[in-house]
Specification:
The complex is a heterodimer of chains A (303) and B (474). Chain A has helices spanning 3-10, 58-66, 80-86, 93-96, 131-135, 168-173, 196-205, 265-278; strands at residues 17-18, 33-34, 40-44, 49-53, 70-72, 103-109, 115-119, 144-154, 158-164, 180-183, 188-194, 209-211, 221-224, 240-243, 248-251. With 303 residues, chain A is an alpha+beta fold. In chain B, strand 8 and strand 9 (175-179) form a beta hairpin. Chain B starts with a helix and ends in a 30-residue tail after the last helix. The chains are: A alpha+beta (303), B alpha+beta (474). The interface between A and B is large, with 77 and 87 residues.
Chain lengths: 303, 474
């Protein structure tokens, strides 16, 4: 995996964006485009780690891990780098954890052309500041992932999906560490994983009915929102899907709920200082940085 | 030299009895649980976020460096004040503010003790998963600062995975909320950056922690071996079989003998190693995993597999593990503890080097470690009254750190860098890597007032040494 070539492609001047498989919004239109190295490096099942280029398709990585009964907690589709840069987990986040917890180490190309190694090779590591978590979810506006080392997890012996007509909170109370509890306004959908006999006993105890697989996810918008947020009350059943315990709501119609605006002045100021220190000219993925981190345009509403 | 103006300003926003400059207090707060001694100028005890913010604003205006401190159980000098810094002690902010049972989270103040939080959660069948050996006395604020671990973070992950949001006082006195209790947010992961920042990004004043349901079933096993390598091979084989136990802990012969004499946990005195394995969860999974683990252990040369038959026996085995540090006092009065991490498949090789290094420096070494994580805890035991012994201890420690990093490992698994390992950072990180970490620090603390001179060696920020501390030393 050619990190040097990738760093050279990112270069030192001018706006630049990064393309994966366009599964999560794609590169910034009209901006010079680069692609991260692709390919699986070293998979060590007994260490529960795998290294790969950020341009590796998630599906290709999962297929390789599945041969040894493992997987990585990244959402389906697109590339590994895209999944990390966007930072949105899949439906099993309650059980498998957020995307940011899957990244152990990364080599990231910064706006000044330098390649920075962050994190460590081991699952447990508190050596220095946590740049890995800073880069996850940063939409490629602080640096572009080149190569990464990910934490893998063993696949459970059983994974089954169920539904219940009872409210999701009541269902959740009866289950020990479900991998997903979803609510669409009319029904609760649950994923249970583990030993087949435990899954069966849990499901029977909570009166769950088995279904084929995960429910369709409304594709209009994904919003950070608590599952008991009053804004959900007026929405028609089926037009949304809430992930309990995770703070995510999927909407069929993006206009149904406005995206929350980051308004905390301390956070906005930190965004701005980070962007100025890591990408002072705003080269990387222009237009994608969070509140306070984009150059303020005339008429901007940011404080 | 006491800064009378600073003391008067602090006393006006707190109260005179919570701003201390007596010789006893200054001596007590000039160090943490490491061997490194610093120099505290003033010690203060705020009770609320507003008081912390007022104290930090005063420090910021007067350009006085400040050090946040919880229980002071840190082992890397992270809470050791330098050059007469202001010490901001959070131990009096010790309330559990709320518990949301359905969402399995709690808001706590930073001075709440780790084990007290789990005791508080017990009423709801919940606990706080990170469980460092110091959990009876370490505070949640300290756990956040150090991104603490513990035996059970093999399966449950370290503190960062259990902190949803933190209210912080930034080094300029601004109060802000990082992260979101509901679990997901847009924008940079400032919460993730803050956890583990060793007090250099500000002071946590409220923490929203994730609580973990207590497992319905727990099984604790103890294997013993005539060969350390056989124990380590068992560990790798368990993980390779797709089982992630709740804990995988190992002790070597020296440690077994010290612990056995101390707590009589029933560890075989002639064993070269014992391996403690704990599995938890739902009953069928626990039973299946236990059976498989026993097979794997015996296939890898274990002499016996003891499965704890009841809670008392389980508690006794764990007592043996968790009192290892106390037991060493029976051998020599002092110990020095490292906590490097190496890939599991290099464990035996690095352990062999640890024994060689200790022998070369004529030191006794006990190994008790989180084998599942590859997290070594070699204890060098000594009597500091012996002339020249500290030099040998430090030389051996440095060699252990170098051997671990050379084996593809990292400097610290859970204790942090602080002052102790600051100057080892270049072993693991190139100048560009350190510069990026320094940029992150600068974003949070442009004036370099929060716990200066820790973690990053002087000159880490390329082309900018204006924040290099005066009189930095170890």
């Amino acid at each position: 995996m050619d990190l040097t070539g990738f760093a050279d492609a990112v270069g030192l001047d001018g706006p630049v964006t990064i393309a994966g498989l366009a599964g999560r919004g794609g590169p910034v239109p009209g901006v010079r485009c680069v692609a991260a190295p692709a390919g699986i490096g070293t998979f060590l099942p007994e260490e529960m780690t795998v290294s790969c280029g950020a341009g590796t398709p998630v599906a290709e990585l999962q297929a390789a891990l599945a041969e040894r009964g493992q997987s990585v907690a990244l959402p389906d589709g697109g590339t590994v780098g895209g999944a990390l840069a966007v930072g949105h987990a899949g439906l099993l986040r309650l059980g498998h954890g957020p995307v940011r917890d899957a990244l152990l180490q990364c080599h990231t190309v910064l706006a000044d052309g330098s390649t920075v190694m962050a994190g460590g090779t081991t699952v447990k590591n508190v050596s220095g500041f946590d740049l890995c978590r800073l880069f996850v979810g940063a939409q490629g506006t602080l640096g572009f992932f080149g190569t990464v080392l990910l934490r893998t997890r063993p696949e459970p012996a059983a994974r089954r999906w169920f539904r219940s007509d009872e409210p999701a909170t009541a269902v959740r109370r009866r289950l020990f560490r479900p991998s997903a509890v979803l609510w669409n306004g009319a029904a609760t959908i649950v994923c249970l994983e583990g030993h087949p006999a435990d899954v069966a006993e849990q499901a029977a105890g909570a009166g769950l009915v088995e279904v084929e697989g995960p429910p369709p996810v409304p594709a209009g918008a994904r919003r950070p929102l608590a599952s008991d947020d009053p804004a959900l009350v007026g929405l028609p059943a089926g037009s949304y899907l809430v992930e309990l315990g995770v703070g995510v709501v999927h909407l069929a119609d993006a206009a149904a709920l406005a995206a929350p605006r980051i308004a905390d002045p301390g956070v906005v100021a930190l965004h701005g200082r980070l962007k100025r220190l890591f990408d002072p000219d705003g080269r990387l993925n222009p237009g994608r940085a969070p509140a306070g981190a984009e150059p303020v345009a005339i008429g901007s509403v940011h404080p | 030299m006491v800064d009378a103006g600073l003391v008067a300003e602090l006393a006006a926003v707190l109260s005179p009895d919570r701003v201390r400059i007596g010789a006893t207090e200054l001596a007590l707060y000039r160090r943490d649980a490491s061997t490194i001694e610093g120099d505290a100028g003033v010690v203060c005890f705020p009770l609320t976020t507003e008081e912390v913010a007022a104290v930090v604003r005063i420090a910021h205006r007067r350009r006085v460096p400040f050090v946040a401190r919880g229980s002071g159980t840190g082992l890397a000098g992270g809470a050791t004040p330098l050059d007469g810094a202001l010490v901001v002690v959070t131990t009096k902010m010790n309330r559990v503010l709320s518990v949301d049972v359905d969402e399995r989270r709690a808001w706590v103040e930073p001075g709440v003790l780790n084990l007290d939080l789990s005791r508080h959660g017990a009423a709801y069948g919940l606990h706080f998963a990170p469980d460092p050996s110091s959990q009876q006395s370490c505070s949640i604020g300290g756990n956040v600062a150090n991104n603490s671990g513990g035996p059970h973070c093999l399966a449950e992950g370290v503190t960062s995975m259990h902190v949803l949001a933190v209210e912080v006082v930034l080094p300029d006195g601004t109060v802000t909320m990082l992260g979101d209790p509901d679990g997901e947010w847009d924008g940079y992961d400032l919460r993730g950056a803050f956890v583990g920042s060793e007090g250099m990004f500000g002071i946590a004043t409220k923490v929203c922690v994730r609580l973990t349901p207590n497992p319905p079933d727990v099984r604790t096993l103890l294997f013993d071996y005539t060969d350390v390598a056989a124990g380590a091979a068992t560990v790798s084989a368990i993980i390779a079989a797709g089982i992630v136990p709740a804990a995988l802990e190992m002790m070597d012969a020296n440690c077994i003998q010290a612990v056995e004499a101390y707590v009589h946990a029933g560890f075989p005195l002639d064993a070269a190693a014992v391996l403690l394995v704990e599995v938890d969860g739902l009953p069928h999974g626990v039973a299946a995993d236990t059976e498989r683990i026993v097979e794997i252990g015996m296939a890898h040369g274990a002499r016996t597999a003891r499965v704890a038959q009841n809670d008392e026996e389980r508690a006794l085995i764990w007592k043996g593990r968790k009192t290892a540090f106390g037991a060493v006092a029976r051998i020599k009065p002092n110990y020095y503890l490292h906590d490097t991490v190496v890939p599991r498949h290099r464990l035996v090789e690095v352990l062999t080097q640890v024994y060689e290094i200790a022998a070369r420096h004529e030191l006794i070494v006990l190994n008790v470690f989180h084998a599942g994580d590859g997290n070594l805890h070699p204890l060098l035991v000594f009597d500091k009254r012996e002339p020249g012994v500290m030099e040998r201890v430090h030389a051996a420690g440095e060699e252990i750190v170098r051997a671990s990093v050379a084996a593809g490992g990292v400097l610290s698994g859970e204790h942090g860098i602080g002052l102790e390992k600051r100057d080892f950072m270049p072993l693991m990180f190139a100048p560009a890597d350190l510069d990026a970490q320094a940029r992150l620090r600068e974003a949070f603390d442009p004036d370099g007032l929060a716990n200066p001179a820790k973690v990053l060696p002087s000159g880490s920020r390329c082309g900018d040494i204006s924040h290099a501390p005066e009189g930095a030393w170890i």
